[in-house]
Amino acid sequence: MRKGLLEYCVMALLTARPRYGYELAQELGRVDGLLTSEGTMYPLLARLRRERLVETEWRESSGGPPRKYYRLSPAGERALLGFRKEWAALRAAVDGLLKEGVR
Amino acid sequence: MIAPHATHIVEGYLARLEAEGAVLPADRRRELIADVRGHITEARAGLEQETDADLLNVLDRLGQPAELVRAAMDGSVEAMRAQQADPPALAWNWIEGAAILLLILAWPAGAILVWLSRFWRTRDKVVATVLGAVPFSLGFPLFAPLIGPILGPLVQRLGGPAPLFVGALGLLNIVAAIFLAVRLWQNGDRSWQLTGPWARG
């Protein structure tokens, strides 16, 4: 389940601006338990690109080698929008069930 | 400053990734290794005083090479399953079987199925279609007037065994069916080896 969520978290991080892989790993690493090993994010990004949910672009970096930037595609934006709605509904439902258990 | 064993540590990790990644399609393996290499470069650039321990921590956070390769395989395993969901086995059970049967009983339907099948080569399809067409043409009201004037004089000239000759022509569709069945058996053996899950070995 966490793996399915991870791809939407990656896409959510790309809504504001394009980011490069290492930057994404740092951001995701701040959320406890989301990214168990940073390296597994790269196959995920590659898959998102194959599914045309993200696009990539090489950009020069100051001082280092060029960086591969990931950007959300229009299809990715639509997928993320769909997930936001599903997630809101699911979260409300699960919260309701969990409260039920406490009572 | 570069850590004392930096090359050994980083290249050793990437070599293990390369070895584990042997199961991946070449382009995916190359992309994964390039992405991971880029990640390590970025992480090292952020270190002020790089030590061997720092590098090992970077690699620890990346995860075991086998774990990364497993993550990269998820998609391709799905793709492989999708390909297998379109199995030649199922197709050749009924299309090819029906094609052979109908080639004898109802040539036009059989011929259409023969051409729909992906199992036979074009050459085999042409041979079977033409062979099967002869008896069909003789028996079919539309074609008999066309074929008759050609075959009639031929049969007359041959004289004696003419009925036998015409009878033999009537068996040509059975010959075509047997021919296709043999090709099916020959090709079948080979394509099973090519498409089976053990094909890579």
What would you note in describing this structure?
The complex is a heterodimer of chains A (103) and B (201). By secondary structure, chain A is of the alpha+beta class. Helix content of chain A is 61%, strand content 14%. Chain A has a single domain, classed as Winged helix-like DNA-binding domain superfamily/Winged helix DNA-binding domain (Arc Repressor Mutant, subunit A, Orthogonal Bundle). Chain A is built from four helices and three strands, in the order αβααββα. Chain A has a three-stranded antiparallel sheet with strand order 1-3-2. In chain A, helix 1 (2-16) packs across helix 4 (74-102). The mean pLDDT of chain A is 92. Chain B is mainly alpha-helical and 201 residues long. Chain B has two domains: 6-84; 88-195, no CATH class. Chain B has ten helices and no strands. In chain B, helix 1 (6-20) packs antiparallel against helix 2 (26-45), helix 2 packs across helix 3 and helix 6 (107-116) packs antiparallel against helix 7 (122-139). The longest helix of chain B has 24 residues, at 172-195. The model of chain B is unreliable at 86-90 and 191-201 (pLDDT under 50). Chain A binds chain B through residues 20-22, 25, 29, 36-40, 42-47, 50, 63-65, 67-68, and chain B through 28, 31-32, 35-36, 38-39, 41-43, 45, 61-64, 67-68, 71-72, 74-75.
